[in-house]
Amino acid sequence: MASERDVRARLQRAGQEHLLRFWAELAPEPRAALLAELAPLEPDALREHCRRAAEACARPPGPPPGLAARLRPLPPERLGSASRSDPKTRGRWEEEGFRQIALNKVAVLLLAGGQGTRLGVTYPKGMYRVGLPSRKTLYQLQAERIRRVEQLAGERHGTRCTVPWYVMTSEFTLGPTAEFFREHNFFHLDPANVVMFEQRLLPAVTFDGKVILERKDKVAMAPDGNGGLYCALEDHKILEDMERRGVEFVHVYCVDNILVRLADPVFIGFCVLQGADCGAKVVEKAYPEEPVGVVCQVDGVPQVVEYSEISPETAQLRASDGGLLYNAGNICNHFFTRGFLQAVTRKFEPLLKPHVAVKKVPYVDEEGNLVKPLKPNGIKMEKFVFDVFPFAENFVAFEVLREEEFSPLKNADLADRDSPCTARRALLAQHYRWALRAGAHFLDAHGAWLPELPCSPPNGDPPAICEISPLVSYSGEGLEAYLQGREFQSPLILDEDQARGLQQQEP
Ligand code: UTP
Fold first, then answer.
1. What span, in angstroms and rounded, lies between the C-alpha atoms of 66 and 61?
2. Which class in CATH covers the domain with range 83-405?
3. Domain spans in the chain, listed from the N-terminal domain onward
4. What's the 398 CA to ligand 1 centre distance in angstroms?
5. What is the C-alpha to C-alpha distance for residues 384 and 465, in angstroms, rounded to an integer?
6. Is residue 484 lining ligand 1, measured as CB closer than 6 Å?
7. Residue 441 forms beta bridges with which residues?
8. Residue 178: burial class (beta carbons within 10 Å; 0-12, 13-18, 19+)
9. DSSP single-letter state for residue 260
10. Ligand 1 pocket, mutate which of 142, 174, 226, 385 (most atoms under 8 A from CB)
């Protein structure tokens, strides 16, 4: 193990010797822990990290000068649409996606290393229950969608197939996530096909470039952003694992979107048939100032421009069809070929520029007291998963309907958007729509049919509660066999047992 002298010298070189200021007070065990944490920090890289953080923070906020003139929407040839294409074309994409899944060429990769500070729970977000009648967690919904899509692909092609699930975690989420999966028997997936790996951490820094101590014996470390994926793939030899399994296409997604379609055959098929190496699902922006990144081009190069970088005037611009010109909201649902990921990890990762997130970071003051700041006091540097888009040789975007595919869980319930309540409503409203489309009727307390109104979350609950297990239907398919012409009291919880029972009865 490195000695105190070594570590002190390295910290001096990085301008960070204050990290040992409580050394004299520490007992042997905390001393060892602190040294173990500090020893891997390479002095020049640490100095550079702190310099960049302070420099980025000093930059004036708002859109970078001159950006507006360099922006263009994606050209139509790079854009597909699930909702605006005809059923035959969609069917062709879906068929291709299922074919690749049946050939065991598709994997899903979950980004689950975030700390979920806005939601404010002490455990990983994937373990959260938004209050569904079934009490399922986000992880369980995702696992069941994997099982269902494997089953659908297998049935179409008369084979058994596997969609491996890669789960990127961080120091904060790995332990509890692994334990949760074990406790739930991997949600009946084969544990050999669930691969968890850990992303790196970076120190949080003050506005003047000093690493923050969160305790006398502990540096404030934070995961290096979801773009830490690329280093983590390399650190843990994940691409080699994919190669061994024959995986060629990877669907990368965020943990918090309750409607996420894992390994979506339509999206996969579209990207594969377009010959894309990199793709992003997008949804129409809800309103011009909506705080989502926009998929567009800068100097002809596809990328995501953050909402804070787009001026209100640019955000308001309209296209000739009356819609917003910069309309393609990024929803962190990406397609990558393994070849592209390989090129990124080998060549492009060092070119990714970290972003600055200004956060409240608990720290110890000069007297050694723990302070929980009320105002942001620190900088976390993060890379973003989408920052690799400019390196793609053939980038495509694929537009999907928000109400079918995107409802993220970001905030606690008091917030009016992206909360457990809006996520639950989005899922239940979707299942209610699916049930009506399959010919179900819901009854009120007096036995009369409830109105078949389309309900629009997040503003309201659907007229009846209907939750459909992903094991019964992945995206609304196949429900007629159970629901056509039948009447149901709310709540209807359509799981596999219930579905079997209904199938055996006459409507
Ligand atoms: P967010 O940017 O919403 O962050 O992550 P978060 O950590 O979940 O929540 P806040 O900002 O602290 O409230 C979007 C996705 O990226 C993952 C998250 O787990 C989520 O799926 N992520 C984020 C990582 O995998 N690693 C990170 O370092 C950060």
1. 14
2. alpha beta
3. 83-405, 429-503
4. 23
5. 37
6. no
7. 487
8. middle
9. -
10. 226
Instruction: Tally Cβ neighbours within 10 Å of residue 174.
Output: 19
Distance 78 CA to ligand 1 centre (A): 28
Tokens of 139: 């992880």
Could you give the angle at the alpha carbon of 425 between the alpha carbons of 421 and 428, nearest 5°?
140
Residue 410 Cβ inside 6 Å of ligand 1? The answer reads yes
Residues in the chain, how many? 507
**Is the CB of 107 within 6 Å of ligand 1?**
no
Tell how far the Cα of 471 is from the centroid of ligand 1, in angstroms. Answer: 27
Q: Does the beta carbon of 112 lie inside 6 Å of ligand 1? A: yes
Write the DSSP symbol of residue 40. T
Ligand 1 and 274: CB distance under 6 A: no
- Say what angle helices 4-14 and 28-38 make with each other, to 10 degrees: 40
Q: pLDDT per residue over 359-404, tens digit each?
A: 899 999 999 999 999 999 999 999 999 999 999 999 999 999 999 9
| DSSP structural state of residue 314 | H
What would the pLDDT profile of 414-467 be if each residue is shown by its tens digit? 898 999 999 999 999 999 999 999 999 999 888 889 877 655 545 678 899 999
Residue 116 Cα to ligand 1 middle (Å) = 6
Going from the Cα of 33 to the center of ligand 1, the distance in angstroms, rounded, reads 27
Which residue owns the Cα nearest ligand 1 atom 15?
Answer: 254
Helix (H) or strand (E) holding 494: strand 492-494
Name, in order, each residue with C-beta under 8 angstroms of 100's C-beta and a sequence gap of 6 or more. 106, 248, 249, 268, 269, 272
Please tell me if the domain spanning 83-405 has the same topology as the one spanning 429-503: no
Choose which CATH entry (2.10.10.100, 3.30.1540.10, 3.40.50.10540, 2.30.110.10) describes domain 429-503.
2.10.10.100
Please give the model's pTM, rounded to 2 decimal places. 0.95
Token pair, residue 364, equals: 């110890």
Mutation test residue for ligand 1: of 121, 142, 255, 352, the one with most atoms within 8 Å of CB: 255
